[in-house]
């Protein structure tokens, strides 16, 4: 599955615990990543050397992304809450 255009759910809903380029304290769940282009909802550093490893490991899948941006946001939000350590 290819990433859905104008989505950005994976750049908003999950937390990222480790520091990365532009976000020295990581990212809280629900916080918009500083690298998300809010006009197109696409990552501004995708496929660059600054693209975080955690983001490189994410692959769009129907079970996560669903059939809409709203569904993806809700699924990732639920996963974030239920998998917190």
From TrEMBL:
| UniProt xrefs under InterPro entries | Puta_zinc/iron-chelating_dom, UPF0153_domain
Highest taxon in the source lineage? Bacteria
A Pfam family assignment: CxxCxxCC
The family database entries (PANTHER family) matched by this protein are listed as:
UPF0153 PROTEIN YEIW
The name of this protein is YkgJ family cysteine cluster protein
> What species is this protein from?
Marinagarivorans cellulosilyticus
Lineage of the organism:
Bacteria, Pseudomonadati, Pseudomonadota, Gammaproteobacteria, Cellvibrionales
């Amino acid at each position: 599955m290819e990433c859905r255009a104008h989505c950005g759910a994976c750049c908003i809903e999950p937390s990222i615990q480790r520091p990365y380029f532009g976000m020295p304290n990581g990212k809280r769940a629900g916080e918009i990543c500083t690298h998300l282009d809010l006009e197109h909802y696409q990552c501004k550093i995708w496929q660059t050397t600054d693209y975080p490893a955690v983001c490189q490991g994410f692959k769009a899948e129907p079970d996560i992304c669903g059939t809409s941006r709203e569904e993806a946001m809700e699924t990732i939000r639920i996963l974030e809450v239920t998998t917190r350590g």
